[in-house]
Structure formats: structure tokens, C-alpha cells
Amino acid sequence: MKKNINPIPKSLRERKRYVKLNYINKREITKAVFDLYGINGFAEIGLQFLKNNIIKVKREKLDCFLSAINYYNLFNDKKMIVEKISGTIKSLSEKYEK
Amino acid sequence: MFHFDKELYFKNVKINTLKTTKDKVNGISGVNAKDINTINYFLNKKIKFVINPFDDKKRYFDFNTINVMKQNNIYGLVLFSELKKLNKIQQTYFLRNAKIFADLCKKKKVFVYFASGLNKDETTERQEKAWYCLFGFSKDQADVFYKVLEEELK
User: Looking at the partner chain, which of B81, B129, B133 has a beta carbon nearest the beta carbon of A74?
Assistant: First the structure.
């Protein structure tokens, strides 16, 4: 196995949050973030679309992302609602739901 | 004459707003007028909220109005449901005017509340609080605003 010689320690890495929604529309979410925060804001949020309607965002910019979802809900009949937010993907899976 | 707007929701509760009037009316929660004179007229009439005192073109408030709001314990309120009617370019001007209103109220220490005009099924409490992020408020400040206004609405 090839090991990374000088990895970034865990304390210095970026903090992230995983958000689970009832459904996802990729194009509309990116549009909403662009409209509210512009290119610079879009880069700072650091969106990443994962499987099972899960999205990865930076921890500091979580509220920006949530406001963008609410902005999307104003103009569309089918609403997106946040089901759960956590720091790991494992806790979002169905096994750990209560 | 007065006119009630039924489309506005605030904290998942319908609110009666007043747009233009010259007579005394009791039991009104907020004013949604687009004139300086009508807003200033209702500031001494036991109102709780001043709703969206701006437009995509102009601003209908002044230093004097915000000073009177502080004396009479009146809150500012920004409802984003008005964004539906506007163009994409007009939306930017609307948000810019909203930020000027929020900053002035912040300077004078008047409470401002932000909300989308959506029903209870369509949003969550956390999504509603996230609007404060747009205007530079922190998460702790949003919780304080939310608690204070919950008590007032009761």
C-alpha cells in the first residue's frame, strides 16, 4: 500500500454536513444558489450531490444552503423539505432512523 | 377604504394587512402600505408589524419612522412571498432594499423578522430561520428573534 507522506490532519480539514431531503432537483438547486449568492457564494458553499437524496455542504455555509432551498420552494408546487442533518452519512441511513 | 390581503402568511398564521385607508380600524396586526404617509399614520394605532415598507423601485421608510417604531414596540417584517410577482432583475433590487431596511433596524435596535409566505406543510422551522443568514445575522440571533416573537404572538 502506498501511504500519503504528509496528510492534512483531521483538525485542519474542512467541516462538512450531510443534508437529507425528500427529493432532489439538481438543476433547480444550483439555479437557486446562483440567484441568491452569485458565483462566489456558490463556490463557498461547496455543493456535492450524493446518492439517496443526500447533499454534502460546508458546515459554516449550511444556513445559506437552507435559505436557497426555501427560495426554490417559493416558486414551485413540489416542495423540498429537510428531513435530517448530520455529520456522517451512516446516521442518515434507514438503519439508524428512529 | 381598507383592503385585507389574504395571501400573506406569517409563521404559518394568516395575517390581516392594511394597504390604504383613512379611517380607524381596530384589530389589525400589520400594515403593508406602499406610501410613507399611510405608514406613518398607522404607527400610533396599536399595530404590531410594519410589513415590507419598500418596493423594487423605492423605499417607503425614514429615520423618523424607525425611531417611532422603537418607541411603540413595533417590529419590522420582511415577507419573501412578494418575490413571486417580480422579475429576476427586479428581485435583486427588492433584496437590496430589504437589506437597507434590515441594516437600519439593526443600527437602531429594532427587531426585524424574516419569513417566507409558505404554509406549515411546505417548510420547517429550520428552513425559516435560515433567511437570517442572507442579511448577516448569526444563528444565535435568529433563535432570539424567534423566541421573542413567539411570545408576542400569543
Answer: B81
